[in-house]
Amino acid sequence: MESLTCASSHLAPRPLQGASALPQVKVSYTVVQSALSKALRGERLSFEDGVNLYHSPDLLELGAVANELNLRKNGKDVYFNVNRHINPTNICALSCKFCAFSRKPGEEGSYAYSDDEIAHRAKVAADSGATEIHMVGGLHPRWKLSNYTNIISTVKAAAPHVHVKAFTAVELDWLARKERKPVAEVIAALRAAGLGSFPGGGAEIFTPYVRELICDTKLTGEGWLDIHRTAHKMGLRSNCTMLYGHIEDVGARVDHMMRLRGLQDETGGFNVFIPLAYQPENNELGINRHTFGVDDLKTVAVARLMMDNFRHIKSYWIMTGQRVAQTALHYGANDLDGTVVEEKIANMAGSKSGMQMAKSNLLRVIRDADRIPVERSTVYEPIRRYDNPAEDALV
After folding, report:
1. Residue 144 scores a pLDDT above 80
2. CA-CA distances (angstroms) from residue 389 to 81, 339, 368, 383?
3. Which of 112, 160, 182, 269 has a CA 20 to 30 Å removed from the CA of 46?
4. What is the mean pLDDT of residues 266-280?
5. Which CATH code, of 3.20.20.70, 3.40.50.300, 3.40.50.1820, 3.40.50.720, is assigned to 75-394?
6. What is the pLDDT confidence band of residue 215, given thresholds at 50, 70 and 90?
């Protein structure tokens, strides 16, 4: 197992510039080829390898190697699920500079769903064939652990057979501090109410000097890792994410991937890695541009090469758009998330991709990329493999 601080010595604090433009740094052909060859031989890549790959001028070659490694792990199968997002409240005690979703109590646009509203959304999701409900929200200053267990119980009463993937490490940390209880006790209470697994939100970028500028009131990167470690040791699986394209540099990205890789070595508890493209609108960070396709595709490809102990890498169409997400299936990604229906967090930050995708469209996006659609559960158990294109019309 590698240390979770494996790359920290490479990341001394320094002034940052927006990374979404991916400033060009010349690297020699030899060092790029060395890293690609190591990956193809199945050798673990170093921090320096990851940074060099990010600066490779040959996107197609990088994608070809990432595609080959993905095909070795997953063949042509591409996973998706039928899911629905429910964001119970946008009222939040924190003030993260990159967030366009949160509101203070009483502020215009603030909301907190009632039990009836949550139950209605859960029932509609179940009736439409959803196998997962994904719930994250703000840190409501008046909500206690009992409010969160009640939310889960409400969902399970309305949709008993749907898997509940809910509440980020940030929310768990908030609840543990409010209740003055260990995180493990909070997790146990949520699990008893019907929680099935955890999403990966709140990771952002682990590097402290970046985190201090974008979300200084949020728990630390090490705190995020510790909470997921605790969940994994309790037998619960989780996802993991990285928010990229704001003020971080590629060294911070590679460091982030290596820390996740280290915890996966230790616990094996992550389902999937999800790079999240920063959405620039309606926040205080001052970055006014979206990421571009080259950056999105490089991030997926480098993740596939660096994160050798992850089978699944997601291309999250909500944040990159359907076209880039589809292209990423040839750059190392093997998952497109799902139908989603009502995702508010990225949408309020300026996502141009909409909030839902029909299952029939997901099948088409995957097939048109010369891949085979596989509907999955939250924890990547195959539900149905769509081997026959003629059956798509029946969906």
Report:
1. yes
2. 18, 19, 11, 17
3. 269
4. 94
5. 3.20.20.70
6. confident
